[in-house]
């Protein structure tokens, strides 16, 4: 229902509802753990510049989107930031601050005993009341834990002892709990009981009682949501991935709970405090302080320093592409494939690699063989249109294994029944104790035998796809692959997955393009479609044919061990047997080289590939291992270009590589698709990592060793706090001594004419907002180096501003 319709039905001022809606939209969604995808936590603020968004977040919650001054001083001292980077940053930002002033500020700020931290300008009623409330909520921060507890009880259908009433709203659940909460005074409990039971009626009552203008209501609502940011993100996410649940527990419901809680806090304030509370929301935002601009200059210089290195790498002389590759291997654009692709091409001159989104254009929901529920294998921003399912091999061994897993699943569900605490341990304790010991010392099971893949079928209705639909899927994949003039005899589609036990964040290590699942199923389905004789004939009639001599094979890349498993090789024609054998040898050699390159960063000290592979395999099976691999840590750039631009160049596993041939895209249709899909996804991943480093207390998941899973798949809490933690765990970003992820905004490098890129920006306002509001960097690849998109036009990155004199603003910075 629109805000105007809600206003008409409830009698609330439409401007007030619009203000609440705007506040809610500034909270980004989150996904369940088993479908976890990286999310830009500032997606709802993309219409603002990143600096304006930070100013609003700073006022509301004391948030900083830059690193402390000591971080940049270390980067300056080590040469990671060079003088020319700083001068370029000054010129790009058009700041009045000068080079010497920025250096002086850095020296001064890092020598302070307590470095200045952003402070929130606006406080909630509970925070103003503080310990004076005297209701058992002694610390200001604890006040909002009470709201988080209600969310935990409402959403945690697995751990709670009794089921939530059917159809009960989040607000209704909170009201029922809070009116009996003995931590509150009797007077406050009576206030709660007096609130209407209906959410809309309660909203109307609360807005009238708070008596704030729409201009004051929006920052209040946003600040309150940030106090329970994890749960706010979950409620926002329901509208994206579970719309039916959002009707009872969406962010609108949570906002009413928070307004009610703030109303209760106001009852604890004396008249002068109430006046102060009201005035702070109505006042203008605090002006941008000089030190914030200084830190943004340093952050920009830090990012330009990476671009300088990337530009130098890309202008190096790349290897020549084989004239007639025998194998084309298409990998997911995931940064972890960059190393393996580089080593694979070095291992065999007859192999050419490509980069494409890892779901291979197959938007499916897949039902695995076993008791697990079907899961979407498609980017989180897309809706699966089709479904597939697999059935296990029919031999007795596999039948026993699946029956055993079904029994285990039944016991898992039994753990969550209300009376299980009295019976389950006594009846199964010894058996599960033996299993725990066995699993802690076991090695991962060998790769299971291939299952039978059935489908695709329509997600709704279940009918098989028509020929036209199958051809459309195949055509879309071929357009994205950009195979060149002629496909190789063997085309391999390589999905990827990871292996780790006892890891709630496993989906974050799997394929983001497959909704946190492995990409092998998508690769198998895509290979089947491209090998279908009927589909090939129809493709040929449409001018997008594959040669009759080309066979398409599926594979899976394990990013933990860098082993590649080729699937259904028995269907490869005999004439391609020698090519396949050489390709398998090249994969083994590339895997060894990649493992050696990655080992030191993971602390794997074993020498020799066999020992190294064994150590990596054991990491995935170790229940106590908080960091089986580094995932996408240190991602920094997206390159949309032919492989010839980067072939043979060491990009350090930091670049998303997507194939794009500007010669085959004169109208810019393919480029537009790439800038509105892979580019947005890469930006979401990049800013999720950035936020988890820059502001880990709000946007990071905290310490893995203290995590407890909420609601089976809802998320994690840390220690005894009921606040839901989103983002990345500390162990995925920090090695205990230093950050392993450099917080950089994504540098998007495109090999295309300026006019073609600018035309996409004109047609796609969302993409234009990300570029113009500095949420990412947009660059062009040229033979002379990178060109940077700026408000004044395209500028060569190597242009340096002249050194500037000592600024009179040094004193102001101090």
Name the descriptors.
five-stranded mixed beta sheet; alpha/beta; disordered C terminus; 814 residues; single chain; Probable inorganic carbon transporter subunit DabA; 32 helices; 11% strand; globular
Describe this structure in words.
With 814 residues, this protein is α/β, with parallel strands linked by helices. The chain has 3 domains: 189 residues, no CATH class; 225 residues, no CATH class; 294 residues, no CATH class. The chain has 32 helices and 18 strands. The C terminus is likely disordered. It is a peripheral membrane protein.
Radius of gyration: 28 Å
- Major sheet characteristics: 6 strands, mixed
> What is the helix content?
40-55%
Strand sequence of the main sheet, in spatial order?
11-10-15-16-17-18
Q: Helical element count? A: 32
Content of β-strand: 5-15%
Class derived from helix and strand content: alpha/beta
- Number of E strands: 18
> Spans with pLDDT under 50 lasting ≥5 residues?
5-10, 133-140, 158-163, 415-422, 800-812
- If you average the pLDDT, what whole number results? 88
Number of domains: 3
**Mass-distribution shape:** globular
How do the helices and strands line up, and which of them pair or pack?
Blueprint: H1 3-10, H2 14-25, H3 50-61, H4 69-78, H5 83-93, H6 99-111, H7 125-129, H8 140-143, H9 145-155, H10 170-178, H11 186-194, H12 199-210, H13 214-227, H14 229-241, H15 243-249, H16 251-266, H17 271-282, H18 290-314, E1 327-332, H19 336-347, E2 351-356, E3 364-367, E4 375-377, E5 386-391, H20 396-414, H21 420-441, E6 452-458, H22 467-481, E7 490-497, H23 520-531, H24 533-541, E8 551-558, E9 563-567, H25 577-602, H26 609-621, E10 637-641, E11 655-659, H27 669-676, H28 678-694, H29 696-699, E12 707-710, E13 715-718, E14 724-725, E15 747-750, H30 754-763, H31 765-772, E16 777-782, E17 785-790, E18 793-796, H32 810-813
Parallel strand pairs: 1-2, 1-7, 3-5, 7-8, 10-11, 10-15, 15-16
Antiparallel strand pairs: 3-4, 5-6, 8-9, 12-13, 13-14, 16-17, 17-18
Helix pairs in contact: 1-2, 2-13, 3-13, 4-6, 5-18, 9-10, 10-16, 12-16, 13-17, 14-15, 14-16, 15-16, 19-25, 22-24, 25-26, 30-31
């Amino acid at each position: 229902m629109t805000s105007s319709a809600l206003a008409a039905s409830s009698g609330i001022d439409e401007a007030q509802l619009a203000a609440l809606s705007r506040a809610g939209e500034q909270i980004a969604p989150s996904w369940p753990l088993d479908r976890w995808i990286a999310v830009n936590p500032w997606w709802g603020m993309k219409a603002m510049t990143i600096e304006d968004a930070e100013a609003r977040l700073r006022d509301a919650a004391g948030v900083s989107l830059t690193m402390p001054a000591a971080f940049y001083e270390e980067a300056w001292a080590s040469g990671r930031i060079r003088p020319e980077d700083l001068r370029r940053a000054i010129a790009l930002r058009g700041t009045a601050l000068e080079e010497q002033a920025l250096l002086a500020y850095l020296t001064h700020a890092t020598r302070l005993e307590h470095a200045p931290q952003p402070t929130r300008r606006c406080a909630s009623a509970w925070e103003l009341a503080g310990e004076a409330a005297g209701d058992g909520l002694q610390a200001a921060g604890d006040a909002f834990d009470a709201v988080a507890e209600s969310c935990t009880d409402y959403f945690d259908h697995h751990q709670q002892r009794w089921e939530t009433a059917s159809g009960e709203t989040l607000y209704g659940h909170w009201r029922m709990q809070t009116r009996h909460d003995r931590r509150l005074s009797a007077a406050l409990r009576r206030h709660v009981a007096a609130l209407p039971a209906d959410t809309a009626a309660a909203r109307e009552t609360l807005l009238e009682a708070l008596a704030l203008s729409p201009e004051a209501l929006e920052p209040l609502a946003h600040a309150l949501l940030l106090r329970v940011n994890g749960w706010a993100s979950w409620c926002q996410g329901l509208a994206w991935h579970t719309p039916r649940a959002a009707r009872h527990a969406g962010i609108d419901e949570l906002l009413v709970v928070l307004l009610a809680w703030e109303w209760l806090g106001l009852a604890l304030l004396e008249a002068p405090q109430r006046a102060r509370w009201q005035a702070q929301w109505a006042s203008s935002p605090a002006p941008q302080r000089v030190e914030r601009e200084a830190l943004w200059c340093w952050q920009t210089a830090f990012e330009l320093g990476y671009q300088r290195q990337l530009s130098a790498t890309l202008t190096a002389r790349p290897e020549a592409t084989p004239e007639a590759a025998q194998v084309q291997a298409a990998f997911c654009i995931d940064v972890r494939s960059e190393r393996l692709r580089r080593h694979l091409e070095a291992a065999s001159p007859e192999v050419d690699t490509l980069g494409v989104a890892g779901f291979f254009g197959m938007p499916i929901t897949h039902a695995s063989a076993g008791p697990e529920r079907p899961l979407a294998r498609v980017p989180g921003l897309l809706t699966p249109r089709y479904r597939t399912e697999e059935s296990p091999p029919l031999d007795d061994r596999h039948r026993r294994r699946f029956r055993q897993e079904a029994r285990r699943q039944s016991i898992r569900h039994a753990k969550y029944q209300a009376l299980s605490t009295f019976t389950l341990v006594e009846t199964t304790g010894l058996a599960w104790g033996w299993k725990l010991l066995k699993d802690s010392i076991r090695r991962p099971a060998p790769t299971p035998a291939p299952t039978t893949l059935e489908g695709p079928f329509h997600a709704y209705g279940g009918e098989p796809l028509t020929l036209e639909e199958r051809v459309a899927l195949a055509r879309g994949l071929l357009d994205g692959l950009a195979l060149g003039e002629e496909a190789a005899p063997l085309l391999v589609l390589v999905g990827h997955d990871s292996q780790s036990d006892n890891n709630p964040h496993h989906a974050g290590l799997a394929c983001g393009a497959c909704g946190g699942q492995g990409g092998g199923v998508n690769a198998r389905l895509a290979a089947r479609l491209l090998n279908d004789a009927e589909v090939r004939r129809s493709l040929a009639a449409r001018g997008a044919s594959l040669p009759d001599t080309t066979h398409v094979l599926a594979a899976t890349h394990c990013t933990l061990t860098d082993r590649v498993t080729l699937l259904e090789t028995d269907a490869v024609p005999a004439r391609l047997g020698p090519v396949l054998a050489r390709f398998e040898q090249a994969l083994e050699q590339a895997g060894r080289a990649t493992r050696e390159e990655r080992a030191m960063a993971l602390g794997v000290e074993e020498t020799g590939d066999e020992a190294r592979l064994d150590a990596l395999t054991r990491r995935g099976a170790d229940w106590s291992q908080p960091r089986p691999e580094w995932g996408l840590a240190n991602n920094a750039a997206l390159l949309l270009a032919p492989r010839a631009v980067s072939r043979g160049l060491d990009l350090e596993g930091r670049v998303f590589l997507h194939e794009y041939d500007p010669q085959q895209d004169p109208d810019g249709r393919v480029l537009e698709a790439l800038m509105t899909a892979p580019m947005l996804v890469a930006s979401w991943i990049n800013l999720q990592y950035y936020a988890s480093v820059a502001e880990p207390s709000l946007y990071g998941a905290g310490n893995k060793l203290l995590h407890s899973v909420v609601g089976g798949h809802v998320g994690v809490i840390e220690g005894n706090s009921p606040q839901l933690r989103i983002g990345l765990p500390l162990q995925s970003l920090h090695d205990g001594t230093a950050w392993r992820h450099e917080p950089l905004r994504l540098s998007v490098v495109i090999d295309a004419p300026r006019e073609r890129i600018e035309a996409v920006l004109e047609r796609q306002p969302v993409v234009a907002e990300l570029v113009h509001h500095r949420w990412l960097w947009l660059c062009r690849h040229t033979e002379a180096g990178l060109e940077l998109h700026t408000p004044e036009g395209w500028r060569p990155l190597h242009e340096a501003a002249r050194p500037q004199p000592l600024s009179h603003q040094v004193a102001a910075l101090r």
